[in-house]
Amino acid sequence: MGELAKGAADILRARIAERGPISFSEFVEIALYDPEWGYYSRVAVGRDFVTSPRTSPAFGHLLGRFVADAWHALDRPNPFFVAEFAAGDGTLGADILAWLSAREPGCAAATRYLAVDRQAVSDASGPLFRVRGDAAHPPTNPFDGVVLSNELFDALPFDRIVSTELGLRQTMVDCLGRDLVSRVGPAVTDAILRHFNALAIRPSIGQLLDVSVVAPQVYRALARSLRRGFIVTIDYGAEATDLYGSRHFAGTARGYSRHAAVDDLLVRPGEQDLTSHVDFTTLRRVGEEAGAQTVWSGAQADFLRALDLAKWIERLDPRHLSHVDYHNARFGALELVNPSGTGRFRVLVQSRGAPGRLDRLV
User: Fold this and answer.
1) Residues 106, 107, 111, 117: is their CA dihedral positive or negative?
2) Which of 37-51, 96-110, 156-170, 220-234 is the least confident region?
3) What gap in Å lies between CA 352 and CA 362, rounded to an integer?
4) Considering all CA atoms of the chain, what is the largest pairwise distance in Å, rounded to the nearest integer?
5) 3-state SS string over 138-206?
6) Which of 37-51, 190-204, 284-298 has the lowest mean pLDDT?
7) Are strands 167-176 and 159-164 parallel, antiparallel or unpaired?
8) Does residue 182 contact residue 253 with C-beta atoms inside 8 Å?
9) All domains in the chain, ordered by first residue
10) Spacing of C-alpha 189 from chain mean position
11) Which of 64, 108, 249, 250 has the greatest count of CB atoms below 10 A from its CB?
12) What is the residue-wise DSSP string for 266-334?
């Protein structure tokens, strides 16, 4: 099937012809992660969306400050690991390490940075180790340090659920001619039903709910990969009461192409990004069940301000930058806290086997 395919759409049509309608999560898995035709196998980072690390190096530098704080809180272990999952091209890791080298050389010397990504080509040279791996099965033994992810969970496969008078039903993906179409399918799986029952969610008739049953499994695996340290999760998302409330009656799933939202999630599979908002209520609960405690939770804007974004901006020296470079650097840093942009991302910090607080975030 794969050898004859000319794209993700052909793979999906063949899968449906063989098995009948497929779940939405299976559609997302193929559209995003097929090793040859999936979106993340083919599309360069930044083509269709802007990430915080590419908006400004301030993002990585301030996370470098967090990493240094964590190192001190753990009594400066050596080695000290930072494992970033869905690390992409390694931009965030490079900025974190650059800040540590300049400001915290002791921490920099102890740090071993693992940039883990499904598409990575393994490379063990230098302080940043690129590792090919899946966050659901972290390629590490339990370690002391920081588990970090930025926009990992919103890109995991998710199901689209519709609330009907007969109960919660799965949205399935089928073919109508050569077009991919959605249909209301069977009752939800036991795993999805348990997810909503745990949250005491009672959706309205006709409401769409986007849910990833993979996300809590991944978070649990990441938490357990940590012996002592901190888990930092940054992503689109909200608390479950908001996520599954009336404000999101049509669900939160979106497609993105050329920096614009796409309403039809089924068109051009493999050529547009697909995301859904992250349920931070469930991630926090799963972490606590794995022995972690919540250190901090809130908006990215508040998180970066607590890490002294204002001081980072103050250090920009117009004497050593052109007028254009100075204003671009300042504008990029302020974009990180823009409430209409990435400033509204959610941040969850949990600790495991470590101090329950970091003074800078109190």
Assistant:
1) negative
2) 37-51
3) 17
4) 68
5) CCCCCEEEEEEEECCHHHCCCEEEEEECCEEEEEEEEEECCEEEEEEEEECCHHHHHHHHHHCCCCCCC
6) 37-51
7) antiparallel
8) no
9) 8-42+159-211+244-274 (no CATH), 52-156+216-236+277-361 (3.40.50.12710)
10) 24
11) 64
12) TSSTTSSEEE--EEHHHHHHHHHHTT-EEEEEEEHHHHHHHTTHHHHHHT--TTSS-HHHHHHHHHHHH
* CA-CA-CA-CA dihedral for 83, 89, 92, 93, to nearest 10: 50
CA dihedral over 45, 286, 80, 362, signed as positive or negative: positive
Contacts of 66 (CB under 8 A, 6+ apart): 146, 232, 307, 358, 360
**Residue 87: exposed, middle, or buried by beta-carbon count in 10 A (0-12, 13-18, 19+)?**
buried
Residue 244: per-residue pLDDT: 95
Q: Around Cβ 193, how many Cβ atoms within 10 Å?
A: 14
Size (the chain), residues = 362
Strand partners, 180: 175
